[in-house]
């Protein structure tokens, strides 16, 4: 079953909140700058990629990752889910 855009974004935010319990859910929007705000670090990216693959239900070619795709929940959604839903 394919998840809606809102379901994907909520799942991503839940994952981010789990990885950084210092941030409050009301402070995490779809446009929050994740790396700039140090909400997630570069060390989290591999785990985030695994989470994205789990949500998608398929693997993707890591060579296709472009700069800036992990900036925000919206940029992650656009890069990895928008074309598949």
Please characterize this protein's 3D structure:
The longest helix has 15 residues. It is globular, with a radius of gyration of 12 Å. It is built from three helices and no strands. The protein is an all-alpha fold and 85 residues long. The mean pLDDT is 91.
Give a concise summary:
It is built from three helices and no strands. The chain has 85 residues and is mainly alpha-helical.
Number of helices: 3
**Mean pLDDT over the full residue set:** 91
Low-confidence stretches: none
Task: Report the order of strands and helices.
Answer: HHH
Q: Report the count of strand segments.
A: 0
Largest sheet: none
Q: Helical proportion? A: 40-55%
Distance between the ends: 11 Å
Shape: globular
Structural class: mainly alpha
Radius of gyration: 12 Å
Percent strand? under 5%
Blueprint (SSEs and pairs):
Blueprint: H1 5-19, H2 45-56, H3 73-80
Helix pairs in contact: 1-2
Provide tags for this entry.
mainly alpha
């Amino acid at each position: 079953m394919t998840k809606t855009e809102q379901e994907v974004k909520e799942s991503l935010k839940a994952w981010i909140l789990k990885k950084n319990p210092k941030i409050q859910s009301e402070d995490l929007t779809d446009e929050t700058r994740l790396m700039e705000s140090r909400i997630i670090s570069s060390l989290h990216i591999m785990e985030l990629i695994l989470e994205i693959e789990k949500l998608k239900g398929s693997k993707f070619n890591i060579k296709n990752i472009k700069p800036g795709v992990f900036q925000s929940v919206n940029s992650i959604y656009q890069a990895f889910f928008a074309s598949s839903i």
